[in-house]
Write a structure and sequence with these properties.
Helices cover about 25% and strands about 30% of the residues. It is elongated and about 155 Å long. The N terminus and C terminus are likely disordered. Among the domains are: about 180 residues, Alpha-Beta Complex (Topoisomerase II, domain 5); about 80 residues, Gyrase A, domain 2 (2-Layer Sandwich), CATH 3.30.1360.40; about 140 residues, Orthogonal Bundle (Topoisomerase, domain 3), CATH 1.10.268; about 180 residues, 6 Propeller (Neuraminidase), CATH 2.120.10.90. Strand 6 and strand 7 form a beta hairpin. By secondary structure, the protein is of the alpha+beta class. It contains 17 helices and 50 strands. The strands form 15 sheets. Strands 25, 26, 28, 31 and 32 form a 5-stranded mixed beta sheet that branches. Strands 40, 41, 43, 46 and 47 form a 5-stranded mixed beta sheet that branches.
């Protein structure tokens, strides 16, 4: 059978298949980028959004229109079907800026969809009508089917792209521009026009909190972290009050359920009670800390999300990556040019109106209209006669008189002209001249005119558009510190295995999947590994524990023999940093080294042990006591101190020792409301295990708390935090709003319950704690009056107020209406500390 021959040009010609494949993909990619996914920098709109707004403007009569009708009108311009148009309308309507809505438009917080387009209605907002449309400054092009004209871009006189935000996935690139606050955008625009620096950070309709320290003006590679507000209702209940941007309540709830199933958090149940406001209730399992759970929700669920901006826009018909500052700057300059064009158009129209009104005034005032009553041979001669009648006045006009001007004058109704009509024309001319003067002034002072334009927008539309997302800096939550222990660790000491699957062997501790495990063997080897089902370490395991990186308090006490020299050594060391899965030798490195004694001490305890020597050795004393407290804590690589050169039979525990370490030094980071040992914030002092911390709050309550580093404090509400001394006398000044006076009281803490809040000022709306101190001799300065009438008086509180019960109301100190402030004026009180003498000012 003969082979069929296909002409070669089918594969090589530009009109053939190969030729088409060479350009099709590039054409498709360009089309998606330019015509679908990426907004234009001029008006901040994608093509579908622009066509919707244009269609709505054509339909606009001040009343609401069915969205189904808007979709149909938009399809005259948009070639991609009704679904994409409907989705775009709903998206814009939910942003509540350009489109006013009526009906069920869904809820972006819950993910609920809008009702069908035949049931919901929309119209352009007054703001949209003011900033987005002007046919005189709009560039037009033919629609896709050639039947209509549509705008190339709308003459947008506002940085819409920054207010709306934008997301789109094209071919080979994507754009993600985060929404910003309406008022802040306008304020930034005004600053730019005034030549001042400005900074813009996102603001989301979903509210929440945001750390924008890494936003980097919206450049690629930047990011923002967004958190929901989580409120501790009581020790068993948490309530989530909003959702992060891009997360729905359903997604948030599912992420919490998933984290619970994975054992990362431990809750009883989660309930979505969202109605007008977001409310997701999380009921905690018994014995679970609310503070740790809040941190875990941020670490393991969608209560915190990280968003990476990627501002890509169409500039000069090409995609370009920009910053939000560049977007704002371009928009403001574009708006300024649009305002200039509008002023120039208005000036031309005013001049034209002035010209014709002046002609009309001269035409009647000088009785040039009587030429119409004369018998001229032709119409053209009538027009020439009228034109000649204007000759004495042409020098006063701003342009030449055209035939059209004269024809228009002759079309005026012929009637008796009164002086009142002439006066009215004179007044019109004066009004026009005043307007022309103002427009010329605005053109000459275009920057000031643009500033006034933005200020007018802010005053008209800024109310109710205040910032919703709180700007804060977030602390870094270590997942290992907040994950709930979700598995159990076991050890087979003889065979040298550890893991979570060795359930028939010795139980070590509860742990999480993220933990590291530190293991020591009798051969003097150490290894740190991840928690897993089963891991071989080495035979004769001595100790297994959960490893904490950077732990400088856990101290290991060890006695081992060096077989080469026969000398027995003792050492004390910490393990703060390691390479995971690497084996470390803690002896001198000789084969057959053997550990006689090993303990792990969480607070640097140094016990006493009894050394028993071999009965056959020549040592005079076959038994003696060894005191670990005499050893200095050194690096794990040190060989240690010699205990004996004689053979050792055994080492046994004799007596527990005390810690050789000082107390734990704690600081309070008032930015994040956290206790820490990294010297961040206010130094609180050196703490032993039994010591507590006193916290006094602006709402007039106090609490005594332990040293747990995972607990959270509302830093903005903390007025005083310090090491708790039960003998300290607290001096407090608070407002009694009901009596409009400030009271002062002195009292001792009488409660012993830890981690509970107790109110110690008079209850009442508006009451708050103004000043508090634990200084032994408090002196307060009371400031009254303002300006030249200001006065200051000092009072020694101890001479004025006796120590009373913590529930007492106290004594009146000053009238609310007269006092302007209080301040303590005592000497500096030193915080107890051994080494750096840090101080607090009271």
């Amino acid at each position: 059978m003969a082979k069929s021959k296909i002409p070669e040009q089918v594969f090589t010609s530009n009109t053939g298949v190969t030729g088409q494949y060479k350009t099709w993909f590039l054409d498709y990619a360009s089309y998606v980028i330019l015509e679908r996914a990426v907004p234009a920098i001029e008006d901040g709109l994608k093509p579908v959004q622009r066509r919707i707004l244009h269609a709505m403007k054509e339909m606009d009569d001040g009343r609401f229109n069915k969205v189904a009708n808007i979709i149909g009108q938009s399809m005259q311009y948009h070639p991609h079907g009704d679904q994409s148009i409907g989705d775009a309308i709903v998206n814009m309507g939910q942003k509540d800026l350009l489109i006013e809505t009526q009906g069920n438009w869904g809820d972006f917080r819950t993910g609920d969809s809008a009702a069908a387009s035949r049931y919901i209605e929309a119209r352009l907002s007054k703001f949209a009508l003011e900033v987005a449309f002007n046919p005189k400054t709009t560039e037009w092009s033919v629609s896709y089917d050639g039947r209509k004209n549509e705008p190339v871009t709308l003459p947008m006189k506002f940085p819409l792209l920054l207010a709306h935000g934008a997301e789109g996935i094209a071919v080979g690139l994507a754009t993600k521009i985060l929404p910003h606050n309406f008022c802040e955008i306008i304020q930034a625009a005004i600053k730019h026009l005034k030549g001042k620096k400005f900074e813009l950070v996102p603001d989301f309709l979903t509210g929440g909190m945001m750390d924008a320290s890494g936003y980097n003006a919206g450049k690629r590679g930047g990011k923002v972290r967004v958190r929901a507000h989580i409120e501790e209702v009581d020790k068993k209940t948490l309530v989530i009050r909003d959702v992060p941007y891009g997360v729905t309540t359903t997604q948030l709830k599912d992420s919490i359920v998933k984290a619970n199933e994975q054992g990362k958090i431990k809750i009883k149940k989660v309930t979505d009670n969202t109605a007008a406001n977001v409310e997701i209730q999380v009921d905690l399992a018994p014995g679970i800390s609310p503070d740790i759970t809040i941190d875990a929700l941020y670490a393991f669920t969608d209560c915190e999300v990280s968003i990476s901006p990627n501002a890509c826009v169409i500039v000069d018909n090409k995609p370009q990556f920009v910053t939000v500052n560049e977007l704002l700057t371009h928009s403001v300059e574009h708006t300024k040019n649009l305002l200039k064009r509008e002023l120039e158009i208005k000036l031309a129209e005013l001049n034209e109106k002035w010209h014709y009104t002046s002609l009309e005034k001269i035409f009647f005032e000088e009785k040039i209209y009587k030429e119409l009553e004369k018998k001229h041979e032709t119409w053209e001669k009538v027009l020439l006669a009228i034109d000649k009648g204007f000759d004495p006045f042409k020098s006063k006009l701003k342009r030449a008189i055209t035939r059209e001007d004269i024809v228009k004058l002759t079309e005026k109704p012929v009637r008796r002209i009164y002086k009142l009509d002439i006066d009215e024309l004179v007044e019109q001319i004066k009004g026009l001249e005043k307007e022309i003067k103002q427009v010329k002034h605005d053109l000459a002072n275009l920057v000031d005119f643009a500033i006034s334009y933005y200020e007018n927008l802010l005053s008209k539309y800024g109310k109710g558009r205040e910032r919703l997302t709180e700007i804060k800096q977030f602390d870094t939550i270590e997942a290992k510190q907040v994950i709930i222990a979700n598995t159990k660790l076991y050890v087979n000491r003889a065979d040298g295995f550890i893991g979570t699957s060795l359930k028939k062997d010795e139980f070590v501790a509860e742990c999480s999947d993220l933990d590291d495990v530190i293991v020591f063997t009798r051969a003097g080897k150490m290894k740190v590994v991840k928690v897993s089902d089963k891991t071989f370490i080495g035979k004769d395991i001595l100790h297994v524990g959960i490893f904490k990186k950077g732990d400088e308090r856990t101290t290991y006490n060890m006695i081992y023999i060096d077989p080469g020299s026969g000398v027995t050594y003792a050492k004390r060391f910490n393990v703060t940093a390691i390479t995971r899965d690497k084996e470390y030798d803690l002896t001198k490195g000789a084969d057959k080294s053997k550990v006689y004694y090993f303990t792990a001490n969480p607070n640097g305890e140094a016990e006493i042990v009894k050394i028993s020597l071999s009965p056959n050795c020549s040592a005079r004393n076959k038994e003696f006591l060894f005191y670990f407290e005499e050893l200095e804590i050194k690096a794990r690589t040190s060989q240690g101190n010699q205990v004996t050169k004689y053979p050792v039979k055994k080492v046994t525990f004799k007596e527990a020792g005390k810690s050789t370490l000082g107390g734990v030094k704690l600081w309070f980071d008032n930015q994040f409301g956290r206790l820490n040992s990294e010297e961040k914030g206010l130094y609180l002092g050196s703490f032993q295990s039994e010591d507590k911390i006193l916290v006094l709050y602006k709402d007039g309550s106090y609490s005594i708390v332990d040293q747990e580093l995972t607990q959270r404090f509302d830093a903005e509400n903390v007025l005083l935090i310090e090491k708790f001394n039960p003998e300290s006398i607290i001096t407090a000044i608070y407002l009694d709003n009901d009596k409009k006076q400030f009271n002062v009281k002195r009292f001792k803490i009488e409660t012993t319950t830890v981690n509970n809040r107790f109110g110690f000022i008079k209850e009442g709306d508006g009451n708050y704690l103004d000043q508090v101190t634990t200084h032994e001799q408090p002196i307060v300065q009371i400031n009254t009056g303002r300006g030249a009438q200001s006065r200051a008086s000092k009072i020694k509180i101890a001479d004025f107020v006796d120590v009373m019960g913590w529930k007492a109301i106290g004594n009146k100190l000053a009238d609310f209406t007269k006092s302007t402030g209080f301040e303590w004026v005592m000497k500096v009180k030193k915080v107890e500390e051994e080494d750096n003498g840090q101080q607090e000012l009271f």
